[in-house]
Every structure is written in C-alpha cells, then in structure tokens.
Amino acid sequence: MVVAEQKPIEEILVMVADFNKVLLTGCKGCVTVCCSGGQKEVGILASALKIARKKEGREIEIDEITLERQCDPEYVDQLEEPIASNKYDAVLSMACSVGPQYIAKRYEDILVYPCLNTTFIGGALEHGVWAEFCQACGSCGIHNFGALCPIARCAKSLMNGPCGGSAGGKCEISPETDCVWHLIYERMSRLGQLDKMGNVVMFKDWTSSRDGGPRKMVREDLKQ
Amino acid sequence: MKAGSKLEKVFAAGHFAVTGELGPPRGADAHHIHEKAEYLKGMVESVNVTDNQTAVVRMASMAVCRLLLDMGIEPNLQMVCRDRNRLAIQADLLGASALGIKNVLCLSGDHQKFGDHPQAKNVFDIDSIQLIAVLKKMRDEGKLINDHECEGIPQYFIGAAVNPFADPFEFRVTRLKKKIDAGVDFIQTQCIYNMEKFHTYMQQAYDQGLTEKCYVMAGITPLKSVGMARYMQKFVPGLDVPEEYIERLKGVDKKKQGDEGIKIAIEQIQEMKETKGIAGVHVMAIEWEERVEEIVSGAGLLPRPEVS
Ligand code: SF4
Ligand code: SF4
To answer: Cα of B108 to ligand 2 centre, how many Å?
Structure first.
C-alpha cells in the first residue's frame, strides 16, 4: 500500500492561518490502513486544529468528510455538494498526495492543501512500524534477488551488493536499517541459489521508472 | 599492456607495487595539493585521488589528477557512482583519458547521509561493479554502454576496492570474483588491521585462483594514536582494530604513539610481502603524507623500481 504520515500540526496550522472555514477530507484506502488519514484521524486532526486556533483566539470551523477513495473521480465527485453549499476557504486532504491532486483537478476554483507526507510503497512490520518495500521502478526483477527488492531497500540501490559498508546484517547508513543485501544473501543461500549471486548483474534500464518521465498505464481492453 | 601506466608496468615486471593516497582540499587552493603531493613523489608508483570522499564536497578528483600529472606524479582517478549518472560517468571517463589519466578506481561511494550535504539527491544509476564493466567495454570494445563507438578509444588500467571485513564474510571473496568477472585489473583493499581475518580471506582468494587474475594491493593506514584506533573500531563498518595494536600504542608515551603506529604499519607491510597473492600495498596516510617516506623505506621498498 501507499504509506503516508501526518505532517506536523504546526505546519498545518501555518497552512490554515488565514482561513476561517475549511473542509477536511479523509480517505478509506491505504491511509486508513496505515492509520494516518482515515475517518478517525480526520476527527483527531480537526479537534486538534480547532483547539489550537481557539487558544489563539481565532476560532476555525472545520467540516469533516471521509471518502471511500480520493484517487477515484467517482468518489471525489461526492465533494461537490458540500463545496457548493458552503463557503470554504480551502479543502484539506488527509489522503496520500494523489487525493489532493484529484480534488484540485475536479474543483478548479478552491485552494487545496495536503495534510500528509506520502512516504513510500510499503507495509507494516509490526503495530506502529512501517517500512518501504518498492520504489515502483516499473519493471520488477525481485525474483533474481530472492524476492527482495534491492532498488527500494538498499540505500544505494545496488544491483551487485552487499557493499563494503554492510556490517552485522545492518546497512552503513544506520544500525536501525537492515542491509537488504545481507537478507538477499541469506535467503538465496537457503534456496540453494548462491551461485546465482556470483553472476554480475548488468545495467538497469530505468526508462520504466520515474526517470523516463511521468508515467501512464493504458489498458486498451478496458478503455471506453 | 592495458593502458601502460607506471603502476601496470611495475606489476607486469613482477615488482611489489606501492600506491599512495591524497584527499583534495575543501576549497580552490591548489598550493596545498602541491605540498602534500611533493611528499609522495618517488615514494609510490601512483597516487589515488579521492572523489568527494565520505560524501564531503572537495576539489574534483579529475582536476587534482591533472595537477599531479603536471608534477610528474601518476594519479589513480577515484570515481564514485553516488554523484553521477551513466552520461556523466562516461563523459568524465573520456575526459580523463584525454587528460592523460590511465588508472581509474571504481567505487560505489559512501552514502551522502554522513557527508556535508545530506540533503542531496543521490544517483546510483549504475553500481561499482557495473562501472568496472563500463571501463572495460570502452577500452576493449571501444564502445559506450549504448554500443555507440567511441571516436578515439580510451586506455584504462581498471581498479576497484574491496572490504574483506564487511559482512557477510563468506560472500566477500565471491564479490571479489564478481569484480574480476566485470573486468578489474587491480584491487586495493580497505585498510587492514585484523591480519588473521585478512589471511583467511586472502587464502580463499588464492585457492580460487583469483590472485592470478588481478593484482591485489593490501590497504595500510598507519595508526596515529589510540584515539584514532578507537574511532576506526567504532565508526568504520566491520573494521576491527585488534586490542593487541591498541595495547602497543597505549604502551608508549603519548607523543610516541604515532611512531609506534608507523612501526606497526611497517611490520604489516613486511608481512604482506610474504603473503601469497599480495602484489603490493596501498598506503593511505591521510593528512600524514610527510611520514610516507619513513613507512616505505622502513619496509625496504625504496628506491622504487624504474620501469619504461
Ligand atoms: S524491482 Fe522495481 S517494481 Fe520490483 S519491488 Fe523493486 S522497485 Fe518495486
Ligand atoms: S550496507 Fe547493504 S543496504 Fe546498505 S548500501 Fe550497502 S549493500 Fe545497500
């Protein structure tokens, strides 16, 4: 899933500093699963903002709505009624950063602000801890690496690791970060594929990655 | 001959080779380079010039290499994959060749996290092993990565680094083999203190015939003080400085710790000369260039052989 975390409240307060009335929108997709932008978090953030502004002596009115998904025009359409019938100064989105862009595209005349920092494609390791697993390079080759991704999970995206900085299973950048190449080594060793690790992996073609420009996927069979 | 550099010729003639190292300044002061380099002249076959070492911005390696050539010192251009993509790498390599640089050392590069610009975007378009393959392709096939033919084929003596002390230890010799398969001509190791572990590594490399396929130079960094030894122990991944050395440094007067460190380095080099598969030493006396002569001569390696 897409993992995101809430921006510091101070940053959001600066965003809304000039506003009296805003619409705070959540999303029931990935950000609900990673506990950063679902209905519950929308409620918590709205209260926190209201309390902070009350303290400043400049109250703010916040309406809350949580959509099924903000990365889908069908659901973003549901904001039409509240936006039309209220004089909002802005819409705040607690979806991953796709959400605010969909809202901006659909509602051309209203200011839109992101309340989350979209961090990575990943998953939970344990309750309250998430990690990155994929960088969306656009041509997956993890089966060559024991089904672990060196592009997203090696600090240097090395194709022929582990590098000389690997120590005790950890990466040179931090004792908190696993060296994925150490994990690849252990897994390929268990699978009896160590000989494969002795082969030089040649240049990666990054055209399918972001380096090839913003990406688009077209499925002719589904297009109308 | 691959490139006909002095370093390559010394190896080819069967001599035990010596290389040195020089870190460019964090500014535009070329004078400082001349001073440091002067100490290395005649002591070593060639001098590595680091490339934004530890991810700290310094004068370009290629520029300093050219300054060394002007002084009559042969340089080893270090090149990291952190700061340039394949376009910049190949362009720089062609330029280096045109400037008369023949030895190139291929490195991944330390992560910028600990450098002086941690906010930087890193590149890592290709990795250090692929970089070796780029040089080999340019030299042996006269072609760029995209198969475009070079107008004027560059000649390189291709180097790489290895860290025998990184983990997993069992994989380290395989990684050396990968570098050889990619086309490396010579190897410089991370600085060595744990001689026992190093011998285990070298024995494996020797048994697999790898030391026949490239020249391996053992990395030697003299310890200046107990403080430096402890620092290395703590902050350089997998680098264990044995207590025995630390005890020796502790055993002498604080002012004499540097001398003791040099003595240890000389003993290490003597041992390396007797080690199967070791073709030379890479002396990294960073900010201590003035003591290199003492080390090299103490190890009985002066004068350096003449080759033509
Ligand atoms: S190889 Fe590419 S697509 Fe596959 S997990 Fe890694 S970054 Fe994602
Ligand atoms: S230590 Fe491991 S994860 Fe970190 S950069 Fe090196 S190979 Fe990659």
So the answer is: 10
What integer is the mean pLDDT of A41-63?
Answer: 98
Out of B130, B145, B171, whose CB is closest to A162? B171
Percentage of chain B lying above the pLDDT 90 cut: 95
CATH number of B6-223+272-288: 3.20.20.220
Question: Is some CB atom of chain B closer than 8 A to the CB atom of A169?
Answer: yes
Q: Do A173 and A82 belong together in one domain?
A: no
What is the CATH number for A55?
3.40.50.2300
Q: Which structural domain, as residue segments, surrounds residue A158?
A: 135-201
Residue A135 CA: nearest ligand 1 atom is 7
Residue B236 has pLDDT above 80, yes or no: no
Which residues in A121-157 are b (16+ Cβ under 10 Å) and which e?
bbeeeeeeebeebeeebeeeebebbbebbbbbbbbbb
Report the 10 Å Cβ neighbour count for B301: 23
Instruction: Kindly report, residue by residue over B261-301, the tens digit of the pLDDT.
Output: 999 999 999 999 999 999 999 999 989 999 999 999 999 99
**CB contact, 8 Å: A203 with chain B?**
yes
- For residues A115 and A63, state if they share a domain: yes
In terms of phi and psi (left: phi > 0; alpha: psi -120 to 50; beta: otherwise), the region of A128 is left
ipTM: 0.95
- Please report the pLDDT score of residue B235 as a whole number: 77
